[in-house]
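re: ur question from earlier - yeah i can do the single chain one, its not a big deal. heres the input i used so u can compare w yours
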Amino acid sequence: MTTPDADAGTQQVLLFLDDNPVPFARYAPPVKFDLDTTKLVDGPHELRVVARSSNGQEGVQLIPFVVRNGPAITVLGLSAHDTVSDTVPLTVSAYGSERTDSFVITASETPQGVPAWVWASVLVFIGWGAYYLLTALAQPAG
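and the output i got, formated as tokens:
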């Protein structure tokens, strides 16, 4: 970004990224800008905003954020800090958003097992239906 350097005695805002000691932008407040995350690697980053008053006092704000421009990765079969042995079957799904002109439905969702609450709901419904059927059949004809 090209911005004019602020002279001593004027207010300025300096923007730093991660541990870089050189600011990537220098503005006079108020500041409005677009942070292009496509130039950053995926992962954790930190934006450091340093504001200097006209008398030289500084205020600092640190803003941690995570960039994820790459494909979303889902791994089924292994979680963080799992204890494993022998052979572990894994399913790795990685879907990016590079194409905006069409939507490919094949393999666009991560395959997952049916949640336990769905099975419990189905069993409750079947049990209720069986109870209703048995009580209706057991009533004397009248």
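The mean pLDDT is 83. not sure if urs matches, ping me
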